Structures are given as C-alpha cells and as structure tokens.
Amino acid sequence: MFDTPATGPLAGIVVADFSRILAGPYATMLLADLGATVIKVEGPPLGDDTRSWIPPVTGDGTATYYLSINRNKRSIVLDLRDADDVALARRLAARADVLIENFKPGGLTRFGLDHPAVSAVNPGVVYCSISGFGPDGGAALPGYDLLVQATSGLMSV
C-alpha cells in the first residue's frame, strides 16, 4: 500500500500523529491527502477508540468512520506506559517535521513529548497541540465534541 512514493505538495513531510477521535485525525488526514507521510500512534490493546465505533463496519469489524478519518496514514501501536515504546515515540518526534496531538493539556509532558522537550531535540518541528478550551481558563478540561457543545450551550440550540 505504501510501496510507491507519496506525491502531492507535502510529499517528503513526516507527520507524527498523537491524536484520536476527530480534531487531530481530521487535520492529519488532510495532510496525508496532500502527500505527507503521516504516522498515527495508537495505544494498546485496541488502538484509536474510533476503530470500534459502529455501525457501519467492514467485514473485519473495523468502523468505517475510523477508516475514513485515518485514510492514507501509517499506524503504529505504542504503549506509552512502556519505557521502550516511549523511546520509540521520542525517536519519531525527533525526526518528524510536524507533530499533532490532542491529549489533555500537559498529557504528553510526563513522556517527554511536550513542545519544550520535542523542540529541544527537533528545533524545526511544527508542534500542534489541540485542546477543547484553548491554553487558558478551562485548559485542563477534557474536550470532546459533545462536552464542548454542552458546555457552550450549542447543544440546546
């Protein structure tokens, strides 16, 4: 599937995708569609939560939502509770041109994968951190779509 070189305006760009569900995967999907090599990091045992969102599913039980939002990407399973896997994640971050994550703010700090740590070894990295409520105020709150809709009042419209 990845035997032919990527084409498009972002060919040659490597993206480390430490995101899940929608905002991050959608952003990295667009980069992959434009030719970037996107390496999606998923946690064990089942990977991204959206792999099991049903219906509809494919014959092997993979949710079509997951397949659509993660098209044109490579995927690796890394357990960030395992020191060897954290070392691999850091190596990926050190060689990536772009890193996109949507952990709760500060969630990657303990793994040495936050912006200060990554930019210290990879000064040219474009580091995109997506949160539901921005860097201030409710920054520590989790930010899934339904939660943001409910908190903002949009859900009542």
Task: Explain this structure.
This protein is an alpha/beta fold and 157 residues long. The protein has a single domain, classed as 3-Layer(aba) Sandwich (Rossmann fold), CATH 3.40.50.10540. The protein is 29% helix and 15% strand. The chain is built from 5 helices and 5 strands. A 5-stranded parallel sheet has the order 3-2-1-4-5, with helices on both faces. Helix 2 links the parallel strand 2 (37-42) and strand 3. The longest helix has 13 residues, at 83-95. The relative contact order is 0.15. The model has no long low-confidence stretch (mean pLDDT 91).
Task: Please name the defining characteristics of this protein.
about 160 residues; alpha/beta; Rossmann fold; five-stranded parallel beta sheet; about 30% helix
SSE topology:
Layout: E1 14-18, H1 23-33, E2 37-42, H2 64-69, E3 73-77, H3 83-95, E4 98-101, H4 115-121, E5 126-129, H5 145-152
Parallel strand pairs: 1-2, 1-4, 2-3, 4-5
